[in-house]
Specification:
By secondary structure, the protein is an all-alpha fold. It has a domain of 34 residues. It is built from three helices and no strands. Helix 2 packs across helix 3. The protein is elongated.
């Protein structure tokens, strides 16, 4: 199955909304994950930093 945006203004608007939503979710990932899991934000931040440090070694 192939999805094609036909160049319609609505198609481009939907694509733009998806891209902006993805960027916003990435930028605010710590508060979002904390709210979804019920964990404190500092705990999520530590886990993400620890994961990044392990990837660099």
């Amino acid at each position: 199955m192939q999805v094609r945006l036909k160049g319609t203004p609505m198609g481009w608007f939907i694509l733009l909304v998806l891209v902006v939503g993805a960027v916003a979710a990435y930028k605010f990932r710590v508060p979002l994950i904390a709210k979804l899991t019920g964990q404190p934000q500092h705990r999520i931040q530590r886990a993400l930093e620890r994961r990044k440090d392990n990837r660099n070694n």
